[in-house]
Amino acid sequence: SAVISQKPSRDICQRGTSLTIQCQVDSQVTMMFWYRQQPGQSLTLIATANQGSEATYESGFVIDKFPISRPNLTFSTLTVSNMSPEDSSIYLCSVSQNREPYEQYFGPGTRLTVT
Amino acid sequence: GQNIDQPTEMTATEGAIVQINCTYQTSGFNGLFWYQQHAGEAPTFLSYNVLDGLEEKGRFSSFLSRSKGYSYLLLKELQMKDSASYLCAVMDSNYQLIWGAGTKLIIKP
Questions:
Q1: Using CA atoms, how far apart are residues B63 and B34, in angstroms rounded to an integer?
Q2: C-alpha distances in angstroms, B99 versus B56, B81, B88?
Q3: CB–CB of B103/B86 below 8 Å?
Q4: Collapsing DSSP states into helix, strand and coil, what is residue B82?
Q5: What average pLDDT does range B46-55 have in this prediction?
Q6: With contact defined as beta carbons under 8 Å apart, do B29 and B93 qualify?
Q7: Alpha-carbon distance A54 to A56, whole Å?
Q8: Which residues of B lie inside 8 Å of A (Cβ-Cβ)?
Q9: For residue B78, is pLDDT > 90?
Q10: Contact B44, B37 (CB under 8 A)
């Protein structure tokens, strides 16, 4: 399994500002994903980060609010733009090799609080 | 629509056995996953079932019945460290993971 790190691990941000979260993997991976998890709730997929092309966003998430970069097979960033208190959540990066059994491995997460 | 159901919370005793059920309705099926998530931590992969039957991995076993849209995770010889949330997820025909809300397992001494 891959070793995944995320930075920052947590942050407290003011309303209206933006935060960029980094996800670094210790080996090349095919697929990278960004999730959001509210306390006590399950995972919600924000988007699939595609290397060399625009990310694929899920319903309810848009590029202007959550721009994503993936410049290579080991690194991705998620920006949470123009933040509001509703964006307070844990943001998780996960990776997969896109072959059976397709299991995903998760980074430690970024705990974001917007005041 | 796509749906995964699992109990919200379960309580069990240290040393005992517990079964966490998961039922699903998805657009296609390419496998079912169980993840464990301790409070404040990221989910960790436990098991994968794509064919009917039981997969055993140490104290944990996972069962799948595709015709019934049903799976369970069986935890034996429960330890206090097994207190966590257990997430069921199904990969649909587009190879997208559909996540259940998770079952919070509380282990009592």
A1: 10
A2: 22, 23, 6
A3: yes
A4: helix
A5: 96
A6: yes
A7: 7
A8: 30-31, 33, 41-45, 48, 50, 87, 91, 95-97, 99-102
A9: yes
A10: yes
